[in-house]
Amino acid sequence: MGKLAVRALRAVLAVVLAGTVCVQALMVWVLVSGSDPEDGSLPLTPLRVIVILGMASAQVALVSVWRLVAMVRRGTVFSHAAFRYVDRVIGAIVAAAVLWFAVTVINAPGQREDPGVTVIMGGVGVAILGVALIVLVLRMLLAQAVERDVEAARMQAELDEVI
Hints:
Layout lengths: L2 H31 L10 H31 L6 H27 L8 H47 L1
Helix pairs in contact: 1-2, 2-3, 3-4
C-alpha cells in the first residue's frame, strides 16, 4: 500500500472520527442540559441515545481500520493479531444494524398510513447486516491467507534445514 494512499485514508479516518466525536458531544450536551426542543412528534431522546451509540460503533470501526492500515504498512496484516481488529469491525457493523432496527421500530408508529417507509428502513437494516457478512467473508479470506503464510514459513524453515 503506497504512502499516499495510507496518508489519504488516515486523513479521511481522522476527519470522520473527529466528526463523530463532535456529533456525540452535541447529542450528549442536548440530553444533559435539558434544552431538548422536542415537540412530541417523535421521541427524540431515544433517537439521540441511539445516535450516540451509533457514533460509538462507528468510532470502534474507524479505530480498528486505522490499526489494520498500520499493520498493512508494517507488513504484519497477515497475522493472527489482525483478527482482533476485523472482529471489532464486524461487531461494530452488527451493532449499527441493531441500532438502525431500533430507529425503525421507534419510527414505525408514525408510519401507519404509509408503511412503505418502515419496510424501506428495514431493508436498509438488512443491507447493513449484508455489509457485516461481506466483512466476515473477507475475514475468512484473511484466515486462509494467514494459514498459507504460516505454512509457507514452516516449509521455508524445513527447506533451510535441508540446505
